[in-house]
Design goal:
three-stranded antiparallel beta sheet, 594 residues
């Protein structure tokens, strides 16, 4: 039985060794060591996930088991949700390191250690059962992410993006620490289960304030509206392998932090109240806002970043529905989105490697020769639209089955983000229509991030994208996908079972049978959404061939210019929005929770 501590310890040890020996070892040794370490984490996480679906366990460091109702030790919660996210983090890190093999500039040997520190932090965050250690891993994850974002220290743009990232997420960390202090003052505990038992049935102003601070801190990392402004700035300047982790898993871990704390600490406090509707409202606004901003973008990395914002909003909405079917669908949707988005970023990295630009107008027609990249890009666009045959479709169907009113939001957000990606594909790979408008974001100069930019493409660059897109499609056809997700969701929602697990050692997870017939009922909506995405993409690239009255809003640059100006790039503006958002969350929680 591999120790869960290895998920954190091994990447940190290897990162320290690679950092100390970076000037002495050849590049291929660093590449190999990093890939093998990430692959080892993947194997350990998958082993624990397979066992957690039958028997959820808590691993206590140093043998510090609970005594009575006191849990002083530090524990890792090995459940389906946490182990699944740790496995996704390890998989995407492995693929990102393979993509960068011998191609990506290692920034003086700092790239590999930082990627492994990032992996260790994400793994620890996913399985931590202690609220203060959630904060510790949150900070370690953020620190590594800041450094990876600003890896090109000789260029001003990455430093500016990393600075904005650092400022907003540091404010989020202060909010989280304040919430933890309030909970500790009320309970004298840091273990999530112990805090939840101590606060059960209590929802006074102190509890609501702690909930508001903690939730806001996590939602900043999750890039929810209006806390999202840092994400497009960070993506536009980060190296492709880093963008894969930012959009594929890091942002989702921010949402998972809010989910974990609500399910274990605040579920008993807000039972029977309207607090879950706060997540529904935030998610709906974020999904629609991100979809519109995505369609208005013409810088590929920023476009994909806004798509991540939109889809994370859909996941937040699914969490607010708070049913086992919705949480099971959310788990599948999260994993599928991480794979599809990673595949699209790998394709964007291939375009940047070959043509040294991320501007949609500048890439017009240049991708005709990339016979392997084009189908992967178009499949990724259909995947974002949750077309039939992709696991996002299966996840969404289970979310909307118990909340049919949410189907319209999923339809609009999926169609907008899918259309934006397909529009890029039609212009870049098919040379269809015009080159598109040259707006501010499309004028950003891209510096080569690979050592052999513009040269022949190697299979190493294609393989990660194929695995990601193919994996998302395989999940849709594997009969066990929803069964595994529903088992994880049932365990995740069972607060009493979680508390018993912490104090008694383990619980047996009951695995409900997934209602597979839902996929048949949801296929019509999925087909219509995919057709809508294709139609809007064609309308956008062929808008000059339709009557002038029907052209708007085939481009959203003009109509959305005022709101696009909110993405000012100034950290002071972003902190102001963060402060306003925190106040709104607090007032809404007070209104819904009392």
């Amino acid at each position: 039985m591999p120790s869960p501590a290895l998920l954190v310890a091994v990447p940190l040890i290897v990162a320290a060794l690679l950092g100390a020996l970076r000037k002495l070892i050849p590049r291929w040794v660093a590449d190999l060591a990093a890939v093998l370490t990430a692959a080892g984490n993947l194997a350990i996480a998958c082993w624990w996930m397979a066992h957690a679906l039958h028997r959820t366990q808590v691993y206590w460091f140093g043998g510090w088991f609970p005594r009575g109702r006191m849990a002083l030790g530090i524990g890792f919660t090995m459940d389906g949700y946490g182990c699944g996210l740790a496995a996704l983090a390890a998989l995407l890190t492995t693929l990102a390191l393979i993509f960068s093999w011998k191609h990506f500039e290692s920034a003086g040997g700092h790239f590999h250690p930082l990627m492994l520190v990032f992996l260790a932090a994400m793994s620890g965050f996913a399985v931590s059962g202690d609220i203060f250690n959630l904060f510790v891993f949150f900070e370690l994850m953020s620190t590594a992410a800041f450094a990876l974002c600003g890896l090109k220290t000789q260029e001003p743009a990455p430093l500016a993006g990393a600075f904005n990232f650092a400022v907003t997420n540091s404010v989020a960390a202060f909010l989280m620490l304040t919430g933890i202090a309030l909970l500790y003052s009320a309970t004298g505990a840091l273990n999530l289960a112990q805090i939840g038992l101590a606060l059960e049935g209590r929802h006074d102003r102190l509890v609501i304030a702690a909930f508001a601070f903690l939730t806001t801190g996590f939602l900043v990392k999750a890039a929810e509206f209006p806390f999202h402004f840092w994400l497009p700035d960070a993506h536009s300047v980060s190296p492709t392998p880093v963008c894969v982790l930012f959009s594929g898993i890091m942002v989702q871990l921010g949402l998972f932090g809010a989910m974990r704390v609500y399910a274990t600490v605040f579920q008993g406090c807000f039972a029977g109240t309207g607090v879950p509707w706060l997540f529904v409202a935030i998610g709906a606004v974020t999904a629609l806002w991100g979809g519109m901003m995505c369609f208005a973008e013409h810088h590929l990395k920023r476009l994909l970043a806004f798509s991540t914002i939109s889809h994370t909003g859909l996941m937040t909405l699914a969490f607010g529905v708070w049913t086992k079917a919705a949480l099971a669908g959310l788990f599948v949707y999260l994993v599928a989105h991480g794979l599809v988005k990673a595949g699209l970023f790998f394709c964007a990295g291939i375009l940047l490697h070959r043509f040294e630009t991320m501007s949609e107008p500048a890439l017009f027609g240049k991708g005709r020769s990339l016979r392997w990249t084009a189908p992967l890009w178009f499949l990724g666009g259909l995947g974002l639209a949750a077309a039939p045959g992709f696991a996002l479709w299966a996840g969404e169907t289970h979310v909307t089955d118990g909340a049919p009113w949410a189907e319209a939001i999923f339809f609009i957000a999926g169609a907008m983000t899918g259309a934006a990606v397909l529009r890029v594909g039609l212009r870049v790979f098919a040379g269809l229509g015009d080159a598109g408008p040259v707006d501010r974001s499309a004028k950003v100069d891209e510096k080569p991030e690979t050592t052999d930019a513009g040269r022949r493409l190697s299979p190493v660059l294609y393989a990660p994208a194929v695995v990601c897109v193919g994996g998302c499609m395989a999940l849709a056809f594997w009969k066990g996908t929803m069964r595994v997700a529903e088992a994880a969701a049932a365990s995740f929602m069972d607060f009493r079972g979680y508390a018993h697990m912490v104090y008694a050692g383990a619980i047996v997870v009951q695995q409900p049978v997934a209602p597979h017939d839902l996929l048949t009922r949801g296929i019509i909506s999925a087909v219509l959404r995919a057709l809508a995405a294709v139609a809007v993409a064609l309308w956008a690239v062929l808008h000059l061939r339709v009557p002038r009255e029907l052209r708007w809003p085939s481009h959203l640059e003009g109509p959305m210019r005022p709101v696009r100006e909110l993405q000012s790039g100034h950290p002071g503006d972003y902190v102001a929005w963060l402060t306003l958002g925190c106040a709104v969350v607090g007032v809404a929680a007070l209104w819904l929770g009392l």
